[in-house]
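This part of the workshop introduces the protein records we will be handling. To make this concrete, we reproduce a full record directly below:
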Amino acid sequence: MDESEFIRRAALGRKADVDFETEIVLSLSDITRAVRALHAALLEHKIAPPEAELLPLILEARAAIQRISK
């Protein structure tokens, strides 16, 4: 499905069949955003974020997205 068909279906409220790789990439992107938001929230509350645990998670998600996108 090309972009215009996807947008047309979305505008009309119709389901657009998305391939599983796209769904995985979108899910990984959501996870990465959530981890970054958690990091920012911890900093905002002056709580030291667990950098050693969060950074590898973000880097692994990014690497997985790149592998899937190829």
